[in-house]
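Per your request, structure below.
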């Protein structure tokens, strides 16, 4: 396969997953800011900071600015920009996609072009649901119509790397949101934010199925970081990314640094436990793991000539 083709498929997977993940980040921010005092706590600032959006010099950021940056901005990692980039990469490799995959990328892709910030703010849940549906339609078409060959593995790799990174960033929003008020840890707002995190990750029902009890910080972290049955857990994403890389190594008869990095990340997550994570610092673990995921992305790009 040409490295250009591999790169386009990889980034198609990443951009579709990033659009869906940004919608989850936006949904989490909207839920957190429903509590009293959101304007003074700076919840939207923590959301934008985690998304990598530059903050204004005065630090004043609210719902309007967040919606514009995360939903409608023509560049960066907004939902609109991600779907446009996914479609552009997919169009470059049109013959590598099935007709259903292309239709999923192409249908209704201009939906956000006629939406302004005021209209988006009034119907934000509808736009978030639209992003989830578009991503789910593409993933469904991929899983049911695409051959399991190297094209599939590069596409999946992009989505898995992006999903792991955004799960870690969602956890970091929770940390950043509580920084100004250490005394609220364990209180009502703390519980509400952990629940918001589960909802943003589509994980609330899975949480209650696995842990069968009230929402607790350690259990939420265990589900999102270490659980190998939950599809958005970082550990499962790392395992599946490692498996895809192993298949590519078998097809091409070559192993690279990315394969060793993937194995090391899987091993780190396999040996981790939530007691140690919270004892050493959840933020520190999330930050270090995110660095490992991003380093894995760089190693994949170097190995396959992106």
């Amino acid at each position: 396969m040409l490295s250009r083709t591999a790169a386009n498929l990889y980034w198609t997977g990443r951009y579709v997953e990033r659009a869906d993940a940004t919608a989850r980040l936006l949904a989490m921010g909207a839920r957190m800011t429903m509590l009293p005092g959101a304007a003074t706590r700076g919840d939207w600032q923590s959301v934008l900071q985690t998304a990598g959006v530059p903050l204004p010099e005065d630090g004043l950021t609210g719902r309007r600015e967040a919606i514009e940056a995360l939903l409608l901005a023509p560049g960066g990692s907004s939902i609109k920009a991600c779907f446009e980039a996914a479609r552009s990469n997919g169009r470059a490799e049109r013959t590598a996609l099935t007709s259903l995959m292309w239709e999923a990328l192409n249908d209704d892709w201009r939906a956000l072009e006629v939406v302004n910030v005021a209209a988006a703010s009034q119907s934000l849940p509808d736009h978030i649901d639209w992003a989830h549906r578009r991503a789910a339609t593409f993933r469904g078409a991929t899983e049911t119509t695409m051959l399991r060959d190297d094209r599939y593995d590069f596409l999946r790799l992009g989505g898995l790397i992006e999903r792991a990174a955004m799960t870690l960033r969602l956890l970091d929003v929770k940390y950043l949101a509580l920084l100004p008020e250490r005394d609220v840890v364990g209180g009502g707002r703390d519980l509400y934010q952990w629940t918001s995190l589960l909802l943003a990750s589509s994980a609330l029902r899975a949480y209650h199925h696995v842990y069968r009890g009230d929402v607790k910080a350690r259990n939420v972290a265990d589900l999102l970081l270490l659980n190998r049955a939950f599809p958005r857990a970082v550990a499962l994403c790392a395992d599946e990314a490692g498996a895809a890389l192993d298949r590519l190594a078998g097809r091409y008869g070559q192993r690279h640094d990315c394969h060793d990095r993937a194995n090391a990340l899987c091993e780190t997550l396999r040996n981790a436990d939530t007691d140690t994570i919270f004892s050493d610092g959840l933020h520190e673990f999330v930050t270090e793991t995110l660095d490992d995921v991003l380093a894995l992305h760089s190693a994949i790009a170097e190995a396959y000539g992106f």
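Residues 3-303 form one domain.

Regards,
D.
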